[in-house]
Design brief:
heterodimer; A: alpha+beta; Butyryl-Coa Dehydrogenase, subunit A, domain 1; Butyryl-CoA Dehydrogenase, subunit A, domain 2; seven-stranded mixed sheet; 19 helices; 11 strands; globular; B: alpha/beta; nine-stranded mixed sheet; two-stranded antiparallel ribbon; about 25% strand
Chain lengths: ~600, ~250
């Protein structure tokens, strides 16, 4: 039952029909990414995910990681799978050819990431962090550090981690105590303890590169006193070969709720040699630039797991015979009807389908803007894309992992008791989905980032980049009668979002508590409207395809799902608006002692 | 040594096929298509021979619609050198395919043709044998191991009740069985390289082959569904039931 088949048709619909990535063929990473090449890449990646990563997902969860004599062992089959993954060049997809990469778009990489997360999230945590580190070192590292470390991160022979959290500080990184002592001209000695380090130690790669936030002597307290250091597990000789073991080791690994095949480590730094990345005191800034891509990828994890849950629940709902349709037997020749005839099962399946396909389109759209923000020849277009990525990152991270947990849970529900027992793999999806709401900045922090920073940034410029096109789309489409059932609810929800945004900004300026109390509900409202505009565009493209005699079942399915989204999911916005407008008082007035 | 590998675009082995309502065939619209798994094994074997220094060039051939170009491309991404697509949109029967392949062999003069023993769509298991006959070449069918000798091949064949090893002269046609090898996963750099490899486009007319079907399909039906089994209480009852069914 633990099946997954990569949704290649839908991915190609998003990339080519909805986003039309072919229009960017004049921009470097898209030159090589013609539809047929992208198709071939995704097909090969799908095969690898389905045949290599998926089969070790369940066993990896059962077996977990082990710490033996100070060395972390990943579950059976992970080493071989990682080798196949790295030797196949999949770690290099969106990397710079100057360091051995394939120079393909990040949006294609994210499509591969989605499939990998669907197949085996725990496995993918290892290469995902390496790619985020690759981006960080590429942006902030010195040429020397880039030359020494990037080629090995690109070919996957080495992996990377991010070391932020300490036992006494997670969200509040200003409290970090890990120290960096200047040693020679370029080197530092790091001492301290980091926890919750994903992939802190393992047996998949020859070397592990840790990116560590630490404090220099006499650095001011708070986050401005933090600098970023690169600390390799094995020191690297000038000829690129591995030198002696560095003073960093894994103290223990955590026992946790999900992603058990992903080693979550306590890392001890005992005078470990490190190299400064970026400027002194700019550590958090550098780290955040790594976290943007990492956060998008975490959002994708929610989608990936939800997709697998949907596929399994769909298959089960078609096969499982229980009860009769309320309006009379649908399959009189069988003992009972398949449960897909029941309204409540359909509600759950459609909720998953509508979120998944909408989220895929939205996430790839954001990923496309990551590419444009880096590579577009026009600086204004680069800035515009960058603004959108900044605005949408907390939304994708937070909403996708929230609904990912909801959707995997719905999938389990469709299996009934058979979902709760381990056999069908549904409970693993729920457990694996849970962490997404926590790591890379909790969803509460993402919501604060959205209301306190992103929507007010540059006097609302980021926001206008997102709002203006929705406005234009609604105006363009409102006169097409068949689009009205989509544009009308979208226009209403969008108007509410705009009004509430003004309210939150205004109230927040007077009293930050108002913005803080609104944050999570506001983010969800924002995400629902963003998905609403995405579904309206999907409906438009699907109608056009039907006009041109496209695949009937596929495009009609899109239109019907868009209708479900507008009528059944988008109305949540009304209650969110009321909750937000009730202000901070209902949340703040209860005395802490009275809880 | 030059190696020719014919490949076929078929319904993916994971797809649950449905019979068309008019019973003329199976539903192919919007169904995931892939390379016939036996043909992947054939390509893998050709690449392994090349990597072992025993082959120089691998030509991947497909007969089918324009989308079969992507099937060839998959073969090139695994390690094939160039491709030939013979465009044909309708049904291609083994005899016509064998004739076309013979014409291509005459033109390319490879030393070895490695092909799947059958395609998983129609399960004919005829084309390799027909081709060998037309060429007057030796054939080693259902191969589970191939070793190259001096102007000859040792082919271990999977036959009823065991394995049979035969020595055949080259040039030869070898058809692959499932245990011959495990095909590799196409690597990303090779996929990127494959897009620059040449695929020649031809038609059956170029080779003067008449593709008109010789067979008439009367109807295509779903196999009968499995009947529910029964549990027997004792060995004696089991023996009795088997007797009743005439099995023993």
């Amino acid at each position: 039952m633990t099946t997954y088949s990569a949704p290649l048709r839908d991915i190609s619909f998003v990339l080519h029909e909805l986003l039309d990535i072919g229009q960017f063929s004049h921009i470097a990473p898209f030159k090589a990414a013609t539809p047929t090449v992208v198709e071939a890449i995704l097909k090969a990646a799908a095969r690898l995910c389905e045949q290599v990563l998926l089969p070790i997902n369940r066993s990896g969860d059962e077996e977990g990681c082990r710490l033996e004599n100070g060395v972390v062992r990943t579950p059976s089959g992970f080493r071989e799978a990682y080798q196949t993954f790295a030797e196949g060049g999949w770690t290099s997809l969106a990397c710079d050819p100057a360091f051995g990469g394939q120079g393909l778009p990040e949006v294609v990489n994210l499509a591969v990431a989605e499939m990998a997360c669907s197949s085996n999230l725990a496995f993918y945590t290892y290469p995902a962090l390496s790619h985020a580190a690759y981006n960080l070192i590429g942006t902030h590292g010195s040429d020397e550090v880039k030359r020494a470390f990037l080629p090995r991160l690109v070919d996957g022979r080495w992996s990377a981690t991010m070391c932020l959290t300490e036992p006494h500080c997670g969200t509040d990184l200003g409290l970090i105590r890990t120290k960096a002592q200047p040693e020679s001209e370029v080197g530092y000695k790091l001492s301290g303890t980091k926890i919750f380090v994903t992939g802190g130690d393992h047996d998949l790669t020859e070397n592990i590169v840790h990116l560590v936030l630490a404090r220099l002597p006499q650095a001011p307290p708070g986050t401005t006193g933090l600098s970023l250091f690169l600390v390799p597990k094995y020191l690297v000789n000038s000829n690129g070969s591995l030198g002696p073991r560095n003073g960093v080791s894994c103290g223990s690994i955590e026992k946790k709720m999900g992603i058990n095949a992903s080693a979550t480590c306590v890392m001890n730094f005992d005078g470990a040699t490190g190299y400064l990345i970026g400027k002194k005191g700019r550590g958090l800034h550098c780290m955040l630039s790594m976290m943007d891509i990492a956060r998008l990828t975490v959002g994708l994890q929610g989608l990936g797991l939800a997709e697998t849950a949907y596929q399994r629940a769909r298959a089960y709902a078609r096969e499982r015979l229980q009860g009769r349709a309320i309006t009379g037997a649908q399959c009189p020749d069988r003992q009972a009807d398949p449960i897909i005839v029941h309204a409540d099962v359909r509600r759950m399946l459609l909720t998953m389908k509508a979120y998944n396909e909408g989220a895929r389109a939205l996430a790839y759209w954001v990923a496309l803007h990551v590419d444009l923000s880096r590579q577009h020849p026009d600086p204004e277009a680069r800035q515009e894309a960058e603004d959108l990525v900044q605005l949408m990152t907390p939304v994708v991270k937070s909403f996708f992992t929230d609904y990912g947990f909801e959707a995997t849970n719905l999938g389990l529900q469709i299996f009934g008791g058979h979902g709760y027992i381990r056999e069908h793999g549904m409970e693993q999806l729920v457990r694996d989905a849970r962490v997404g709401q926590l790591y890379e900045g909790t969803n509460g922090i993402q919501a604060l980032d959205l209301v306190r920073r992103k929507i007010v940034k540059k006097s609302g410029r980021l926001l206008r980049r997102f709002f203006d096109p929705i406005d234009r789309f609604i105006n363009e489409q409102k006169n097409y009668s068949r689009m009205r059932e989509f544009t009308l609810p979208l226009a209403q929800a969008f108007a509410k979002l705009q009004q509430v945004t003004a309210w939150v900004v205004e109230q927040g300026a007077k009293d930050p508590q108002q913005a803080a109390a609104a944050a999570s509900d506001y983010l969800r409202l924002f995400a629902l409207v963003a998905l609403g505009s995405t579904w309206a565009k999907i409906a438009k493209v699907s109608y056009a395809a039907l006009d041109n005699a496209g695949e009937k079942r596929f495009y009609e399915g899109k239109i019907i799902t868009a209708r479900f989204y507008m009528r059944r999911l988008l109305p949540q916005t009304s209650s969110l608006v009321r909750a937000i407008r009730s202000g901070s008082r209902p949340i703040m007035e209860l005395d802490a002692e009275a809880f | 040594m030059k190696i020719l590998v014919p490949v076929k675009r078929v319904v993916d082995f994971n797809v649950k096929v449905r019979v068309k309502s008019d019973q003329t065939g199976v539903e192919l619209a919007n169904v995931k298509m892939s390379m016939n798994p036996f043909d992947e094994i054939a390509i893998e074997e050709a690449i392994r021979l090349k990597e072992a220094g025993k082959g120089e060039e691998i030509i991947v051939v497909s007969i089918g619609p324009v989308q079969a170009r992507e099937t060839i491309r998959t073969g090139l991404a695994m390690g094939g050198d160039r491709g030939i697509l013979v465009k044909w949109d309708a049904e291609a029967e083994p005899l016509a395919v064998a004739k076309l392949l013979k014409a291509i062999v005459d033109e390319e003069s490879p030393d070895l043709v490695i092909m799947g023993k059958q395609a998983i769509d129609d399960d004919c298991n005829q084309t390799g044998q027909m081709l060998a006959q037309m060429l007057g070449w030796a054939q080693g069918t259902f191969a589970s191991e191939i070793t190259v000798g001096d102007g000859s091949l040792n082919v271990t064949r999977e036959i009823d009740g065991g394995l049979e090893t035969i020595e055949i002269k080259m040039p030869a046609v070898v058809t692959t069985d499932l245990r011959l090898n495990e095909p590799r996963y196409a690597s990303l750099p090779n996929i990127m390289k494959a897009k620059r490899k040449e695929i020649a486009e031809k038609t059956p007319e170029d080779y003067g082959v008449d593709m008109t079907p010789r067979l008439t399909i009367l109807k295509v039906e779903e196999p009968a569904g499995r009947q529910a089994g029964i549990k027997v209480e004792s060995v004696a009852e089991l023996v009795e039931k088997l007797r009743e069914e005439g099995v023993i």
